[in-house]
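Submission checklist for the structure archive. All mandatory fields must be present; incomplete records are returned to the submitter.

[x] Identifier: Glycerol kinase
[x] Organism: Haloarcula limicola
[x] Residue count: 510
[x] Sequence attached
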Amino acid sequence: MSDTYVASIDQGTTGTRFMVFDHSGQVVANAYEKHEQIYPEPGWVEHDPLEIWENTQDVVRQGLEDGGIEASQLEALGITNQRETTVVWDRETGKPVHNALVWQDRRTTDRVEELQEAGKVDEIREKTGLEADAYFSATKTEWILDNAEPLKMQSARGESLRDRAEAGELMMGTIDAWLIYNLTGNHITDVTNASRTMLYDIREMEWDEDLLEEFGVDESMLPEVRPSSDEEYYGHTDPDGFLGEEIPVAGALGDQQAALFGQTCFDEGDAKNTYGTGSFYLMNTGNEAVESEHGLLTTIGFQMSGEPVQYALEGSIFITGAAIEWLEDVDLINNAAQTAELARSVDSTDGVYMVPAFTGLGAPHWDGRARGTIVGMTRGTRKEHIVRATLESIAYQTRDVAEAMEADSGVEMTSLRVDGGAVKNNFLCQLQSDIIQTDIARPEVDETTALGSAYAAGLAVGYWETVDELRDNWQIDREFSAEMDAEEADRMYGRWDDAVERSLDWAREE
């Protein structure tokens, strides 16, 4: 088995990564390519699905070449993806009818407010475990069908996209389904991605007729829903296609569930936080879908072939790593690595708080009209204070979610497993430990999102026999313990709520 591997396509918000793992879970090949972020209007975010597919092929070829690996050495391929991002495409041509609407996109906020006014929020939460929010795929699909300009060759018959959808001519899916379709020709998603559409009943484990009717989504558009690790496989790559080999595509998880899986959080009470563009804190709640009373989401954690679903509580924080990117965009820093040095150069923020609500606030506030806010500045405020306040905002948002998680689950957290690009920042990891007053464990392989989908695919084809083998692979790189006095942490956190209050309900039409 030493000369065979399992690979993962990790299609994220800002780019696409291809990684190859050996039996011990170590990375043996890695390639990455960014794609364009398209902002047609304020609060609108789109991606070009064709660019994503082209980049996927490029990084797979590049990764194999750089790693000196033949495609024939891959025993399985797993997929993980930015969740909620929605594509609608033509069944016959395989071409998208519009750019993908990205999870961050807020254009359907008005529609969500209609749902709230119509008293439909509780029904949506009960069935899907989700808050009614523009974050999810349901209103995005509805918007595309109602507003996208039909392609000229398609509209020659004078048919709207809705007419074409009802005629069975269109397909929709999250990015995993788009990639699986292009790799195998099959229209399939996994349970974790289905659970993020706001169209799927997570207890009945089926597309919900009432929600499909509410959002005008014809069931013929929807992918088949399969386990996250599927011994029946989603399909095989085309031997005449870009890889030149028939490789099983056998695992898929939305990126945050993939990180939960990659961090080997297989047992009830296990928790992890991934720091990427946003941050996503998930706790495994076992076979019970725990209802949140504190603004968290109830979601599907993962499902193995032939086994019951494992559920999770999730705190979705929309902007964390993207706040550091913003610092770079406005020339306060030259690169992300500089944040730790600048933040350390001052003892505190001097009372400055930054609320990075650039695309509204997620858990536990759920305010789509909140906007980014900096408060507490004086004439003596320097860029070092703003940089430090930005890093602190990541820690405060995580504490918001951690406290909600403990209240909902009744489980007191003693250690939090972390991953994602931002955890390379030791200052942030220590700050996080201080603010939530718990241990932080950073694993050796911090690309746990890609690792999780590789694990799911590898288990499906027997590359790994049991999850115990995966637990054995998990190794700590470094642990961080709270050094700050609890009273000081509480004092700093105490003004965070005041700052959040000032960001709420800001984006109002004049």
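[x] Structure attached
Curator remark: Residues 152-156 have pLDDT under 50 and may be disordered. The chain has 18 helices and 23 strands.
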